[in-house]
Amino acid sequence: MRIRTLTTSAAAVTVALGTVAAVVVTQSGVEGSAAPVAATAKKPAAPNDFNGDGYADIADGNLYGKVKGTRAAGFVTVVYGGPKGASAARRQILTSPDGVKETGLFGFALASADFDRDGYADLVVSQGKGPGRVLYGGAKGLTSRTVTLPAGSFRNAATGDLDGNGVADLVTTHGDDARLYLNPGTRPGAPQVTTLPMPPNPDPGAPGGPDGNSIRPLIGDFNGDRRTDLALVQSYNVAFDSTESKLVVRLGTGKGLGPAKVTSQPSTEAISSALVRAGDVNGDGRTDLVHAADANGSDTKAFAVRLGTASGFAKPHYVSLKSFGSAVKGAHTGYALAVGDVDGDGRAEVAVNLNKGKGGTRGGVVLLVRGTRTGPSTKLFQVFGQDSKGVPGTDEKGDEFGGGLAFRDVNRDRRADLVVGVPREDKNEGRLYVFPGTAKGGVTTKGVANIGASALGVAGSTAGLGGNLLF
After folding, report:
1. Which of 4, 85, 107, 235 has a Cα-to-Cα distance from 92 of 20 to 30 A?
2. What pLDDT digit, counting tens, does each position of 263-308 carry?
3. What is the DSSP letter of 6?
4. Residues 469, 60: contact at Cβ < 8 Å?
5. d(CA 10, CA 345)
6. Is residue 35 included in any domain, yes or no?
7. In the record, which residues are listed under signal peptide (predicted)?
8. Cβ contact 123:42 at 8 Å
């Protein structure tokens, strides 16, 4: 198969937001030198379309990277989509406006929505111990127009219209706290920021303690009533090697979120807040939960699915690694999970990272499982890595191929493309692959984008590209 490798000779543009008039997208190399054309703002942009051109963009938080010439710890890499897909020739490297050092971790968590309804998606960025930010989009991509979130730092975030008024809202979580920003617009905190009550951690002093990343917000239509709902997955340690979880669901009512319904999951069915995603895997119009099935160290299951129902989530259905036969022989679950519809049939596929070889001696592979009317199918799947035919690169120990995963329709063909991060490639420089989705229910290596740190102008920054993708 013919593989197109993206390269560029342009130097990266690195800016500290808030210190320049605008943030620009570098333009050179493969895709030509013309700047992106401004879109006419007739309706809010879809999430992740920062320049409003209708093509989804890729954002990656490089929280441990350091860009030469800046004081900041951590930066965010944005690769823009276009008619030919994602290209390193159209990118931004964004650093913290605060110039924070080691404790900054700019890009720790990411979320996106068009909060001000101007036709350009905005980006929410956490920076660890520093204040959270909203970076506003514009015709040439993300701009220097930013605001600080009044509730401070956060570890996870999600967006969606939770009060039914057609305007995106934001939920952030930190430790055991969850906050709702209703209609943040250009002034987060106005009209209100609400603390969402959460069940208390039953044993905050347990070995291992609270992990500071214990609540994951997920937004979708879980019961199929065409209203947006909120789920909060709260996982916590009850012993050094034992995790339990609670699932808090608040259904949309048309007048805002309804009361919380709390269900508990014992250690045998625990949901890891680090690896849980939302999507409709069976095409019934209800958003389902897909999560890692190894919260307590099991290596026999690939993932678990909890289907959304009219009355709540069904019991978990576990998908065994053994179901995929010799294709995953010797594999165990890895570090990433994503849900997206690669063939446009309304049934989302599940992508999961696997490590192969004793002690992780191989660099990692991705298992892509097709969605059907009954959910993910163990008969329709792909397994691929850097040693697969048509995939550029070389499989090496510890590279973590698939260490980050996300779905994005970067070429606007109504099929999600699979973004695969390889964060430990080239001594932690990292690499991004973008595999085009196909009508046959899988991804292809034909036209795969292969984007490294040099092409993005961040070589030598130990960016760990692809390890913290906005999903």
Report:
1. 4
2. 999 888 889 898 999 999 999 999 999 998 875 555 678 999 999 9
3. P
4. yes
5. 39
6. no
7. 1-21
8. no
Q: Does residue 167 fall inside a structural domain?
A: no
Structure tokens at 50: 């920062």
Beta bridge partners of 110: 125
**Regarding beta strands 122-125 and 75-79, do their DSSP bridges make them parallel or antiparallel, or are they unpaired?**
unpaired
For 220, the enclosing helix (H) or strand (E) is strand 215-220
- Answer whether 302's CB lies under 8 Å from 352's CB: yes
**Domains: count for the chain:** 2
Does 302 fall in a domain?
A: no
Is 284 among the domain residues?
no
Distances (CA, A) of 419 to 37, 57, 277, 340, 431: 24, 11, 15, 11, 10
- Whole-number Å distance between alpha carbons of 407 and 442: 12
Q: Render pLDDT for 211-261 as a digit per residue (tens, 0 to 9).
A: 434 899 999 999 999 999 999 999 887 776 678 899 999 999 978 899 999
In sequence order, which residues have a C-beta less than 8 Å from that of residue 30 and are 6 or more positions away? 6, 7, 8, 87, 88, 89
First and final C-alpha spacing in the chain:
28
